UniProtKB/TrEMBL annotation:
This is AB hydrolase-1 domain-containing protein. InterPro entries: AB_hydrolase (IPR050471), AB_hydrolase_1 (IPR000073), AB_hydrolase_fold (IPR029058). Residues 45-70 are annotated as: Disordered. Residues 88-314 form the AB hydrolase-1 domain. Pfam families: Abhydrolase_1. SUPFAM superfamilies: alpha/beta-Hydrolases. Gene3D superfamilies: alpha/beta hydrolase.
Amino acid sequence: MVVCQFRAKEERRRSYTCTHNTFGSINFSVRHALLHQPGRFRPPLLSGLPPRRRRVECTGQPGPQDDPRLPPRVADVLQNVRAPVDPLCETYNFRCIASDRRGFGSSHWNGPDTKKPVDWDTLLTDVISLLQHLEIQDFIFVAASMGCTESLLAYQSSKFIEERCKGLVWLGAIMPFPLQTAEHPLSPSLELWDSIVGGLRDNRAAFVSESLPGVFAIQAGNEIHPKTLEHFERIVAEADSLAVVKTVEIFNQPAEAAVKKLAESAVQIPILAIHGDADQGMPLEASAQIVKEMVPWVDLKVYEKAGHGLYLTHSGQLMEDLVSFFRQVENA
């Protein structure tokens, strides 16, 4: 999930702030690379754990990513995030900040201070607390896959977020019906979700290796370098085993009520939904198209031959649409 924060208009250098959240096994979104500085920010429920959340800031100007004093491990993390974020920083001069979701990268899933099982409330508290800690002002959420639901719930559950969020971008959303029902037969079946969890539990490395080509719709003609696939395999391999499975279960819950609430809201927040017509995991007809029908003011763009990982295979087209949307919202 990405948050783009607007600076004051009188500033010459237009700048945004981005925070990314990833789900390592299903939502292979932009790689998050944050080095958590001791004494800075930790998820509220993890306050008793070692400070292992990674954080880095990319501003389009010399910054932490160019600091030779960073340890080698951090340098590796920063290299992971540079490719997808570089155009935002270098070409468009946006300011980017990224963060792993709990349990991914080097962060923890739970610990001694976790009083209840991690659930939606926990993940939303993480997001809201991070943005409050950073004192975020006006911004736009950009989310992929499961993060789309997360961004909507954060917007609806926090006055702080509601007052500052000026737009939403959803890439390959899995809402409002991530689970197949009689009324929505095109959504993934319970058996499919069970097979995903089973594959992750039984042999994560093999399951991810076999699944990645479908994520990027290679069968539709998209080309992904083998080293890029290996890179995403490593991202999943680093994740906490419990986090990989539990995050699937959490995000598997319907979001129909949240979408209906959005449709009935007096405030029509600008929304850009982008989906691939070759998304086999979450077909267009079972997700973004339904969202468009429920929330008529959503601007829906369909990418030809794009799968769930369109942010990588269609990065140029996506970058153009993101920048155009940012400017529309900023100038509104």
